[in-house]
Specification:
196 residues; 4-stranded antiparallel beta sheet; 44% helix; alpha+beta
């Protein structure tokens, strides 16, 4: 399906990662948009299933998504996502199976931007996706996962988890560097382990 340019521009403006790229590096945005498509989902439709392997991450443009800890949607969602949030990127950063199931929670359905992560290449490969672009995405993903774990603590307080999380988040690194990117990658792996 072909979407009007005005809708694409609107979608880009709604998602922090894409809007930051639009401001800082139009060339990088253009490259990533070549690997991005809009997907319309119906109410209750599963976008991501726990345990599966995927090659895309998603940015919610319209509607609401619910995150469930297992494959079944009968349990209470551990978190709700509203437009502008990214989901599914942790599995891409760690090259691991999905850690949760994500389904459409809004009755009117949802609109997401699906980005093929293969364009990002290996962590230390900056031939297509620049360091600053990778840092931007990794920072947003780590922040989102951190918020998800904190939200999980509300439902099931775990002192050990809180201590592990605090230790992970305190690691020093040189900002805006490959060192920071490596740290964020390790942090994403540690956060994934805490989610498991």
């Amino acid at each position: 399906t072909s979407y009007p340019p005005a809708l694409i521009e609107h979608c880009i403006s709604q998602i922090d990662f894409f809007s930051m790229l639009a401001e800082r590096d139009a060339e990088q945005l253009s490259l990533i948009m070549q690997h991005t498509q809009l997907i319309e989902l119906e109410a209750g439709e599963v976008l991501i299933e726990k345990g599966t392997i995927g090659n895309a991450f998603y940015a919610l443009v319209r509607g609401e998504l619910a995150i469930f800890p297992d494959k079944q949607l009968t349990e209470q969602a551990i978190r709700r996502l509203l437009p502008s949030q990214i989901v599914g990127a942790l599995a891409m950063l760690n090259r691991q199976p999905r850690t949760a199931t994500v389904a459409v929670a809004s009755l009117e359905g949802a609109l997401v931007m699906a980005t093929d992560f293969t364009v990002f290449g290996e962590l230390d490969d900056f031939s297509k996706i620049h360091l600053t672009t990778k840092l931007c995405l990794f920072r947003l993903v780590v922040q989102h996962i951190y918020q998800t774990i904190v939200a999980m603590q509300v439902y099931s307080p775990d002192q050990r988890l809180a201590q592990e999380l605090a230790m992970l988040m305190q690691s020093p690194h040189e900002p805006d560097s490959v060192d920071e990117l490596e740290h964020l990658s390790e942090l994403a792996m540690g956060l994934a382990w805490l989610l498991a």
